[in-house]
Specification:
InterPro entries: Anthracycline_SecMetBiosynth (IPR052164), Glyas_Bleomycin-R_OHBP_Dase (IPR029068), Glyas_Fos-R_dOase_dom (IPR004360), VOC_core (IPR037523). The chain is α+β, with helices and mostly antiparallel strands. It has two domains: about 120 residues, 2,3-Dihydroxybiphenyl 1,2-Dioxygenase, domain 1; about 110 residues, 2,3-Dihydroxybiphenyl 1,2-Dioxygenase, domain 1. The chain is about 15% helix and about 45% strand. The chain has four helices and 16 strands. The protein has an eight-stranded mixed β-sheet, covered by helices on one side. The chain has an eight-stranded mixed β-sheet with strand order 10-11-12-9-13-16-15-14, covered by helices on one side. A hairpin with a 5-residue loop joins strand 10 and strand 11. Helix 1 packs antiparallel against helix 4. The radius of gyration is 18 Å and the shape is globular. The termini are far apart.
């Protein structure tokens, strides 16, 4: 895994209907869903989302009993680390939680499913591939362009992730009485932002914005494929526009791209 420690290297959708979700994201982002080919590893129902050039995300059904535990469809992110066991131990020592201990996937890598001290879930992983992950790439459509955390205590969240992954604050935008939209960076490269949890948000969470070539065309694709747009298109710095929406199964997602018209 040649990516620096602390970079997002993978994204994963857990959903109640994998086939319908694959069709939706195919219509909106042009992704193709395929079965991974890993020698010696049996079929599990896991699928890979591909832009046609490279894999950028995973897709799987919600585990049995998830709904009874209050877990619904949603996106999760994987942060690349040098040592999964050491990272998991440090996160627990800092007040985080462990949902799945460090585990090996033959031919794929080692990972752990954790949560920060404010209850927001995420994975840490060290991939087995000698090639760098490009799942997070702000220059290419179909890849994740922005990682956004909503947290009840953004200052504490930045301190936690900064200690674990080396993230640093790189400026901020005021949000009035709500506080600040803090930009986060690793080694000078912006990864996304941390913002206060809005009063009407159901829970603190990581939200991921995927890049599109035309925001208006993407908006039409979202509604045409049965999704819902909750916010936008709204202009953001860089002559870009964002959409915040949910897919037909209820998983929240974001889109970001230019306006071509």
């Amino acid at each position: 895994m040649p990516n620096p420690h602390g970079v997002f290297i993978w994204y994963e959708l857990l959903t109640s209907d994998p086939q319908a979700a694959a069709s939706f994201y195919g219509a909106v982002l042009g992704w193709k869903a395929k079965v991974p080919e890993i020698p010696g590893v049996p079929e599990t129902g896991y699928r890979l989302f591909s832009t046609g050039e490279t894999e950028v995300a995973g897709l799987m059904a919600l585990p049995p009993g998830a709904a009874e535990q209050g877990m619904g469809p949603g996106w999760l992110g994987y942060v690349g680390v040098e040592d999964v066991d050491a990272a998991a131990a440090a996160i627990l020592a800092a007040g985080g939680a462990q949902h799945m201990p460090p585990t090996d996937i033959p031919g794929v890598g080692r990972f752990a499913f954790l949560a920060d001290p404010q209850g927001v879930p995420f994975y840490v992983m060290r991939g087995a591939s000698p090639q760098a992950s490009t799942a997070f790439d702000r220059t290419r459509p179909g890849h994740c362009h922005w990682n956004e955390l909503t947290a009840p205590d953004p200052v504490a969240a930045l301190a936690f992730y900064g200690k674990q992954f080396g993230w640093e604050r790189q400026g901020a935008m005021p949000m009035g009485s709500l506080g600040e939209y803090q930009f986060i960076a690793l080694q000078g490269k912006v990864l996304g932002a941390i913002m206060p949890k809005l009063p009407d948000s159901p829970r603190a969470a990581w939200n991921f914005y995927f890049g599109v070539a035309d925001i208006d065309a993407a908006a039409k694709a979202v509604t045409g494929a049965g999704g819902t747009i909750h916010h936008g298109p709204e202009e953001v710095p860089g002559e870009l526009f964002i959409i915040v929406g949910s897919d037909p199964q209820g998983a929240a997602f974001g889109l970001v791209g230019p306006r071509r018209a």
